[in-house]
Amino acid sequence: MSYPQKQSVQSANTVRIDSQVAATLRYIRGSMEAASSIAVPGSAGSAMGIVGLLAAVLSSTAGLREHWLGIWLLAAAVAASLGIALKARPSSLRGLRLSGTPVRKFALCLIPSMFAGAVMTAVHWSAGNLHAIPGTWLLLYGCALVAASVPTTGTLAVMGGLFISLGLLALVLPDNLQTLMLGTGFGGLHLLFGLLIGRADHGR
Q1: What is this structure's pTM?
Q2: Domain identity same for 23 and 105
Q3: How many degrees, rounded to 5, is the angle at CA 65 between CA 63 and CA 71?
Q4: What ranges in the chain are assigned the alpha helix state H?
Q5: Which of 7, 41, 56, 166 has the lowest tally of Cβ within 10 angstroms?
Q6: Which residues constitute the domain of residue 177?
């Protein structure tokens, strides 16, 4: 008469253990996903977009048009500094070290295309082919974003694809439209996607 009761207790224990195992596996899987990804703050994209728009306005001014390359190089340095500073803040809040695996993956995805952009800028400048510089920047930056979308978010891949399209278009457009392409990409796209990512983060 006691056998069914013993069987019922064993069944309850099995269900309880199975639930604990499933919960543990879910926790481990969530931890692995969090450890292999990195958040991109919308504020970083918005700040970089504002810098890009300012650079576009300055380089379009009559007295500064001949200095457009210097203006955009300075803007790139400022935007990169802002992006790194704003990226570091949420990383520290999430307990991610800047030397950790996700950040390392993010950097390794960005650096090759950025390095290629620096090299090609020097090559175009030394050859007097300034016309090709904006298109090269947009194209290679787009490639960097597509690569960086792997450890971050697919939104960056969409943004990178748009940069690539702008880069290809800039390579065939006349000189007087090059600043417009740079402003559209590094200003407009950065600001737009920064706002979209920020809104998505706020919704979560």
Answers
A1: 0.74
A2: no
A3: 105
A4: 3-35, 42-60, 68-93, 101-126, 132-148, 154-170, 178-182, 190-203
A5: 7
A6: 41-203
HSE at residue 129, side-chain half, CA atoms within 13 A, is: 11
Cα–chain center distance at 134: 20
Here the tokens at position 57 are 């306005």
Residue 189 has φ and ψ, to the nearest 5°, of -65, -40
Angstrom CA distances, 168 to 67, 124, 126, 141, 149, stand at: 23, 16, 22, 12, 20
For 14-61, the pLDDT digits (tens) are 555 556 655 555 544 444 344 344 556 677 888 899 999 999 999 999
CB 105 within 8 A of CB 38: yes
Residues in the chain: 204
Q: How far is CA 150 from CA 29, 121, 183, in A?
A: 18, 26, 26
Q: Which of 81, 105, 179, 78 lies closest to 138, judged by CA? A: 179
